[in-house]
């Protein structure tokens, strides 16, 4: 019993040290996996992420004025543009932008932008679907 | 030899004159903070703290979840750090219209500084909004809004 608790603590400590050193760094593929796992926990019958569903979600409005594509563009492998201020937004798709690897930042922007686009927070399935879609995009 | 000395002397004189001139040069805003730059600068240029009074910044920081129609909320510790930075550098003598205005473009200072900008420029697709400082102020990202950095974009020719 003691050994089991200790080994768990060791794993936890190692995980914390890792997270601290990397400031919540995560590859898009890792984030995708986590969203999928969270979606399955939330909905036991969840059949897996879908790029097609993600694309549809990304390009349509959800009862408010904007869609994701309003600012990020219909093919987010190029720069987007903030629809109000005109400020450039670097590409969302991992293939075109290697810098989007901060989990806290990803969650922060999902929270804000889902609030703007849907008037609520997004579910893990919705976030995962969008990421699945973004991961299918090629530069060409 | 004499010429060389006089050249040095005049150079020193020019330098000593230009220092106070640079120091009082208007519209060059000092003071930076990494979180302010990252958070306030992601959807628009991180507007210099000097452009609004403390009361405006306090009101702004309390309503970030409804920030000009968008959710710009940040976590509590980030908000505290940014708030303190803004208050430290907040403006005091820019003729602020209404003490809690949240729009820099509503201040008397902004209107005075932009009185010569014509209507067509504001409508230019490359400008789009008075929030888009960097459209004309090419060094805005560095807090530099001086005359020398201004380039009014040309209207795109539409057919």
Description:
The complex is a heterodimer of chains A (140) and B (159). Chain A is mainly alpha-helical and 140 residues long. Chain A has a single domain, classed as Orthogonal Bundle (Cytochrome Bc1 Complex, Chain D, domain 2). Chain A contains six helices and two strands. In chain A, strands 1-2 form a two-stranded antiparallel sheet. Chain A is globular, with a radius of gyration of 17 Å. About 5% of the residues of chain A have low confidence. Chain B is an all-alpha fold and 159 residues long. Chain B has one domain. Chain B is 40% helix and 0% strand. Chain B is globular and about 45 Å long. Chains A and B meet through helix 5 of A and loops of B.
List keywords for this structure.
heterodimer; A: 140 residues; Cytochrome Bc1 Complex, Chain D, domain 2; two-stranded antiparallel sheet; 2 strands; 3% strand; B: mainly alpha; 6 helices; 40% helix; globular
Give the structure's gist in a few sentences.
With 140 residues, chain A is mainly α.
List the topology elements.
The complex is a heterodimer of chains A (140) and B (159).
Chain A: H1 2-22, H2 28-42, H3 51-59, H4 68-72, E1 80-81, E2 88-89, H5 103-117, H6 124-136
Antiparallel strand pairs in A: 1-2
Helix pairs in contact in A: 2-6, 3-6
Chain B: H1 2-24, H2 34-40, H3 54-62, H4 76-89, H5 108-113, H6 119-123
Helix pairs in contact in B: 3-4
Indicate the proportion of strand residues of chain A.
under 5%
Distance between the termini of chain A: 56 Å
* Sequence of strands across the biggest β-sheet of chain A: 1-2
**Span between N and C termini of chain B?**
65 Å
Order of helices and strands of chain A: HHHHEEHH
Indicate the proportion of strand residues of chain B. Answer: under 5%
Q: Element order, helices and strands of chain B?
A: HHHHHH
Helical content of chain A stands at 55-70%
Q: Overall pLDDT of chain A, averaged?
A: 88
Shape of chain A: globular
């Amino acid at each position: 019993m003691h050994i089991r608790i200790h080994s768990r603590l060791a794993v936890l400590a190692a995980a914390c040290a890792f997270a601290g050193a990397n400031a919540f760094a995560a590859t898009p593929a890792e984030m995708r996996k986590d969203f999928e796992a969270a979606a399955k926990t939330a909905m036991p019958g969840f059949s897996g992420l879908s790029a097609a569903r993600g694309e549809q979600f990304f390009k349509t409005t959800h009862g408010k004025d904007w869609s994701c594509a309003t600012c990020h563009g219909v093919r987010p492998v190029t720069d987007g543009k903030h629809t109000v201020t005109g400020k450039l937004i670097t590409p969302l798709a991992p293939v075109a932008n290697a810098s989007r690897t901060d989990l806290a930042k990803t969650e922060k922007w999902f929270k804000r932008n889902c609030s703007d686009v849907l008037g609520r927070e997004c579910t893990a399935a919705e976030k995962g679907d969008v990421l699945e879609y973004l991961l299918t995009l090629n530069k060409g | 030899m004499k010429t060389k000395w006089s050249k040095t002397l005049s150079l020193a004189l020019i330098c000593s004159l230009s220092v106070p001139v640079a120091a009082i040069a208007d519209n060059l805003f000092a003071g930076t903070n990494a979180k302010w730059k990252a958070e306030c600068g992601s959807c628009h240029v991180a507007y210099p703290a000097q452009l609004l009074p403390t009361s405006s910044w306090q009101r702004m920081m309390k309503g970030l979840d409804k920030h000009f129609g968008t959710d710009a909320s940040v976590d509590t510790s980030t908000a505290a750090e940014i708030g303190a930075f803004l208050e430290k550098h907040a403006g005091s003598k820019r003729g602020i219209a209404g003490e809690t205005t949240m729009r820099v473009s509503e201040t008397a200072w902004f209107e005075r500084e932009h009185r010569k900008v014509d209507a067509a420029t504001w409508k230019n697709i490359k400008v789009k909004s008075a929030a888009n400082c960097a459209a004309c102020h090419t060094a805005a990202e560095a807090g530099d809004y001086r005359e020398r950095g201004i380039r009014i974009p040309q209207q795109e020719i539409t057919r």
